[in-house]
Amino acid sequence: MMLSKSRFGLLAFASGFLIVIGFFLEWGDYLPFWAYAALLVCCFPVFTLSLGLWWMAREHEEDIPFVGY
Amino acid sequence: MIEYVLFAVFFGLLLLGIHRKTIARIQRRPGPPVWQEILHMLKFSFKSTWIPATASGTLFVGIVLLAIGIWTAALFVVLTGGSLLIIFGIYMLHKIVEHGFGLSSGSPYGKFGGVRSVISAASEIPLFVTVAVIALFTESFSLADITAYQEVHGPLLFLVPLPALAMYIVILSKMPSSPFSIVESKEIVSGYKTEHFGVWRAGLEVTNGLKTYVLLFTFLAVFIGSLPLWWILIGMVLIILSLSFVCALCPMLSPFDTVTVQILITAIMVVYAGILWVVA
Amino acid sequence: MNIAGEPFLVLEFADELVYLTPYTTTLLLFALAFTIFAIISRPERQVDIVFGGDAFYAKKTSLSEMRFRRFMAIACGLASMGAVVTGDIFNFTLFISLVGICNVGIVAAVKIRHVQEAAFQYGIVALSATVPLFGAAALTAATTGTLSMIELGKATTAAVSPVIKALLVLGVMGEGMAPFYAAKAEMFRAPGAPYVIMCSLSSLLIFLRVIEVVLVI
Lengths: 69, 280, 217
What we know:
The structure holds three protein chains of three kinds. Chain A is an all-alpha fold. Chain A has helices at residues 5-27, 33-56. Chain C has one domain (9-216). In chain C, β1 (9-13) and β2 form a beta hairpin. Chain C is elongated and about 70 Å long. The chains are: A mainly alpha, B mainly alpha, C mainly alpha.
């Protein structure tokens, strides 16, 4: 169901790397602004989530939803 | 630009913290510190996380990514002076995001939050009427043209106060513990966010920060005009303070009353826009 | 007047027309994302509490029901994508009526009484809304001689009368019931998340699109 922690780490690293590369390319005028914006819209959510999951994803059985106290 | 996105997330969360603190002080409680929402986001990222057994996995995760994605896009649209219609569209699509959050987990509470979010769809129409009235004056939907118009004619806030009020109510209906916040009210635990815990919730907090920043920024850009960043930030804090007073002093309405009040506001705004259109 | 940004891509296939502006691209990508979710996601299993006790059960969507609903949800996603990008008034109305049919189809396989009743009532409204919808397209063609939104947006063609625009909006409201689709709320209580979400998503997208269409023509 869920990916393993190391996969999330890889995902976080890859998306973070793309964001940084994009930042420098746009800074040096190699990348148009709209492409950088599109890159950020795609990579920023992935980076945010995978960073946290790399830290704290649980790797065993799922639980059922909360059904009341 | 990534630095601006991060700044918007943290400042938006700080605004929500100020909102909570002010409500608490008005109600004579000590309240949490103003950076509590930022701490929440960090805390949730370090919580054990999984996907509930009954959830629709892809949707459960994908909706968080989409939520952050659309508000990042909205931030870009606002900063580059893009079309106000896109902001309006993204604001409407946030409804689907709430719906998706609520329905993806299989939890009955989330489902009620999602269904409530759908029945209160009338709350978005005042925003469209605002957009339409502004377009009547400025003859453009682009934010850049709207700010340019205001440099010549003065702030739209004084020219068309009623749409400003309508947009204020639209922002109010998205604030936590507002009179209209039926989608996350406590009788259904946390509404649509009930089942999104841990890292998913941290993603939701990031969305909330961005959303607050974008909505308040849009309000200032549309009704006051282009301001230096410092004045924008001060303006945001002032708007948040006024919103906190409304939230602290008004009771939460029942779902039925919320929809009735929202439809009433919508009707008034449509009539107002109709009159303006006929006169113009 | 600058409505939703300049179109950056115009595709013409004889009398068919597809064009993308920043606004329609945003809507298209959103519809695409949800269609992909509908394709690859397994349906949610709705948890319900047994009344008067602390037991609970999860409603399961059977395989045959899931197949049918997934097909309808994908069709609905494709129809709303078509409605969002098309630059032709008739195709627009056609896609919108397709959205109306698919919305009923998505919940048609659910064997719950109140869901079926809501879907039936909604279906009747959607059916009767096709008259103003296609009427508006026909009247546009009759009064201006063209159905292309780009042509209609130019000052050279005859102006589209506000009555025709009102008919178009009325038709879309009937098909999608947005924004007053409270009548559809019962439909959303059907279990099986990515599919029921397509109902509200498609209504919202066609509502957002018709605003642009009415402003452009």
